[in-house]
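Box 3.1 A note on notation
Throughout this textbook, protein chains are presented in two layers. The first layer is the amino acid sequence; the second is a token string describing backbone geometry. Keep the layers aligned when reading.
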Amino acid sequence: MGAGIELIFVEGHSTDHTWSEILRVTQMNPDIDIKTFQQEGVGKGDAVRLGFAKSTGGILMILDADLTMPPEELPKFYDVIVHNRAEFANGCRLVYPMGNAAMPFLNLCANKSFALLFSWILSQPVKDTLCGTKVLRREHYLKIAANRTYFGDFDPFGDYDLLFGAAKLSMKIADVPIRYRERTYGTTNIHRWRHGFLLLRMVAFAARKLKFV
């Protein structure tokens, strides 16, 4: 994917041996451009902003550490960006069949409902709003970051922050289907009801900003 690949690990207050494993793998691969950081803030959104701020590449990619999205699928996102089929490549887990345990039924229903709401708010189709994998050029991310005060720091997950920011700047968003699989280690940090209510509040907030202003 281009002339060189830069790998950035952002560790977020893990309670297991994640940080030591990151350092071990980094030391084992001195020929690979790897940068490692421990975030001072909390949440994936804060981790993504730190990683993007420390990056130097022309195309920025998010890959969740649980590897429910296989990294081997990242070239599909790369192709969408470099061939200018879109300015924002958004992963979509809801096209290909997935394993029974990959996404609980209630989560699947919620994701599809949020997709309908987002498609209306953003005025362009988005099938999956919470897939962790999102890819865009650095120049476009910097524009989103520069305009972040319009929405404020309202999204601890980071997904809505990027999607709403891209929509506000009239960027073309393209869904990229992925083969979503069950995590093989650990448990999710997402709490279905508490975070679901928070997501609804964020959707209502963004609707006011994008549709009724």
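The CA atoms of residues 9 and 65 lie 9 Å apart. The helical segments are 18-28, 44-54, 74-82, 105-122, 138-146, 159-168, 192-210.
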